[in-house]
Design goal:
Two copies of one chain form a homodimer. By secondary structure, chain A is α+β, with helices and mostly antiparallel strands. Chain A is built from four helices and four strands, in the order αααββαββ. In chain A, strands 1-2-4-3 form a four-stranded antiparallel beta sheet, with helices on one face. In chain A, about 35% of the residues are buried. The interface of A and B includes residues 11 and 40 of A.
Chain lengths: ~160, ~160
């Protein structure tokens, strides 16, 4: 059985490849490739995880699945806090976000944080898409290594 | 615990990013980035796997560890066959190489196969390097999805 840390190592290498060794501030970079990679992985991981899963009864149940089973499968822990305004906005808080937990804290952190959470924004968006929920996903870092992922469901 | 297939998904996305959607023949591409990513991952995976491991007594023991524990940790199975000329050349054969096992067989296969095994060549080289064995690693595909990895130990 693979250790989840191998996924982390590979993720770190992708960041290095796209961002470069000097870890440029995110504003100078086009991170859409990371988002796209995340989307595809999230989509496929859901196929793997929900193969024999019953249908979810509503959107909230889908989001809860992302917070528990999905997050545990990928990051080895659950989301610590879930909030919603009951109008399609969900905020998922991970207090020890794996991809940031080993980054040293510096003043430039806020500038480079998107390098580390953009893939996961795509991952969540891809996972939700495969479960029938179209969304926009963003993230914010206030206190390292805690990350809040904002999901805005897009209803048609 | 993460499923080893997540590692595979992420690897597939990297290939797509570097190679492009049309899966160009490898001769037109610079695959060194894949090799470098593999090297770093292999190096770090060894740190993770051998943390409380006794020292290996010789080079052959190191290579056997790559064939068994290392391969199982990353790919979920062992190497099927190991041969050596006892002069620093080792041939590791994986009859169901994970990154090729889901590629459909076409006449252009031999041209694109390096897209799928280059990362792993780097992975093996990085793992060996961290265990004190400097090597050059190549691969060949004769019958899909079987791959032979050739390790040539470089002695000083």
């Amino acid at each position: 059985m693979a250790d989840p840390v191998f996924f982390e190592f590979l993720h770190a290498e992708i960041i290095k490849y796209i961002v470069g060794d000097d870890n440029s501030p995110s504003k100078d970079l086009d991170l859409s490739a990371l988002d796209t990679m995340g989307f595809s992985c999230g989509y496929r991981i859901i196929e793997r995880l929900t193969r024999e899963w019953p249908k979810f009864k509503d959107e909230l149940e889908v989001v809860k699945f992302i917070c528990t089973d999905f997050w545990t499968a990928v990051y080895g822990k659950q989301i610590d806090n879930l909030r919603t305004n009951n109008q399609g906005l969900y905020v998922l808080q991970d207090n020890m976000f794996r991809f940031l937990s080993k980054i040293s804290i510096g003043k430039e952190l806020m500038e480079i944080a998107p390098n580390y959470y953009t893939f996961t924004c795509g991952l969540v968006r891809g996972a939700l898409a495969n479960l029938g929920v179209v969304s926009a996903v963003n993230a914010e870092v206030q206190i390292m290594p805690s990350v809040k992922f904002h999901i805005q469901v897009q209803r048609t």
